[in-house]
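INFO batch 0412 | record 1 of 1 | parsing
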Amino acid sequence: MSIEGQWLRHPGGRILLFDEAPGEFEFEFELDKHSPKTPPPSNALKAGDVNVASIDLPARDSLLRLAAVPKTRKAAVELLDHVKAGRIDGIRCLRSTAAMARVKRLGYDPADAIRAGNDAVVLLDPTDLRGGKPMIAIRHELDPRCGSAGASPPTSAAIAKFDAALLKSLASFSAWREGISLGRSAKCALAPLDDPGRTGLGNVLPRLIRLPYAMPAAPGAPKLVRHRHTSYKCNSAFSFVPDGTPVDLLPANMRPHFVAPDDRFMIVWELQNQLHALLKEDAFKDLVNRSRTAATLKAEESDRLHLAVVNLSGRGNLCEPGLAHYGAQFNEWGGSTPKILIVYAAHQLHFDLEQMVAADRIRDFATLEKKAAEEWKVFSCKPRLELFKFTAPATSSGLLKVEMSVALNTLLREMTANTGYSTARASTLILKIGFEYLASLAWQSGLRHPTRGGIWYGTTYCTDQKPDATDLACYGKDSETKIACPSTTPRVFWKADPMKIYGVRGSALSFATYMTLLAQGRLVDATNSARIEALLKNACGVAKDAGVLGIRAQKCAWTDTTLHDAVLIEREVVRGARRRTLRYVIAFTCRLKNKGDPALGTMHALIRRIDTIMEERALA
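INFO prediction complete | emitting tokens
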């Protein structure tokens, strides 16, 4: 017998035929020549065997049906064994409490959890994507008993779909067990975002890219390592609260909520129209393309100004903020504003080390150093542990204590303060944290989007840096990329930059996303978000210079050709007896012709007008 298709070898020796066609599955065949030739008994499973609390009734019946057919009997027995052994955390109907909770914690909308062409999804463990216990969830509509145990049985067509979906889920679970890649060699790579254009295991959340052979990372993506953070959910009081223990960092978990699960922008059209009307005024005509018509205003990459405004005022808007923007997705030379990623990375690195200590109950530095080297083995130039202070436990039950060193705190403070040390300190931190770690974090937090771009570091700033001798293989001087810098203060660039940008980039959208996550307390966790905010409160700011009050965090960029800002604003506003909390984010990139460009004054006027609009909306 000759069977064509894509074959997948199971760790136990079986070979699975996995059809590429969405929604279709070729049954599993036993090809082990050393297995007994005698057929298994016809009563391989009984009702009592599948009476497991974590298996919903429709799935129990499916296992019994599959076990009654010789060619699927082994698959049914194996699937049940995985559940009983704790390798699979149950087989549920999608809208069951357990499955819904997991879908949401993975950062997805339950309505979009199962893609078209599939009838089930393997939900990975959000707390441990590589080693946790996946759950299988079946499309609710296939069996009426998913909604009520007393409902009528499903139709024969639905039964066939249910059984096929369960078998396909087993194949995907088996692929996952071979190892997913976060920059490592494996059969599957973790998709950086829910990208429907990629070929992969469409019945797994988060999405997995099926690789044709072992490779270090998905094409075009940076090498990825594991980052941990506290996942948050919005409660009945419209505040973000922790959603259990720390989980693996996923772009889906870091949506700022003005971007929908399908990647659409959630526009507040009234605010969008106000913004467009403002930009059409003659006072701001030099900032946008003069070819606009009176009726429309379409942003172009050639515009000098790109802008994002995020409304966080009012009941519910911290949880579901609204966006208005003008070409916010366009990328620009980043200047100093992308330094907000460096601040984030330093705190994320601290948290990652603390999580390694907690997970492995580490008591000494040598063990942690070995653990970190293993976690980051795909990096050519790893983060420098000298950035932290390590204290051995005082008691036999204690764990190694990890703290930011005095030197790291000083570097962060001098980088974010409005002083002449900023770019030099930033370059030092880039090399000590590492381009690769910064890229992994930017990619998996969504601050760097695969198609829209965003914050990125492919070089240091124009400061004469001397990389550690062990890291020289990673870096080169800017003469090789012809990035303009004085000869006395050359850049250090990242030789293996997967984006081949070899520079510092950012967009108003990525800056606004960062400040929105900060307002929600979602950068690492609430404690670290507060620390990040404290550092950014006194950074430079164009909005501050424009006289805007209530600035919680800010970071500007001002050079001969660049004027950017990212600002989180919150203050009380009063009109008569009415008192409201005004809270919003404004982020923009603006190209200057020279240091004396009058656009600076124009931007001050524009920011004040937007602040007035946002205040009026808060008081409405």
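INFO post-check: Residues 335 and 557 are 5 Å apart (CA to CA).
INFO record closed
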